[in-house]
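Next comes one such specimen:
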Amino acid sequence: MSDKKPINDAMEHMSKIEGIPTDVNLKKLPKPLRYFGYFMIGFFTLSILFIMIANLLK
C-alpha cells in the first residue's frame, strides 16, 4: 500500500473493498495498450480543437 494516509476511516475501508489501485506506473503497460491510450487522448484533443475551430468559422 502507499504512504498516503486516507482522509477518514470510511475512505480507507472503501478503497480496501473496491481494490482501487493507488500506485500505477503507466509506463509499464504493454505497448499496444499504451499506444491505444495515446491514440485516444490525441483523438479527443484534436476533436475538441476541430469543434472549437468549426464553431468560430460559423
Remarks:
- Residues 33 and 39 are 10 Å apart (CA to CA).
- The helical segments are 9-18, 31-56.
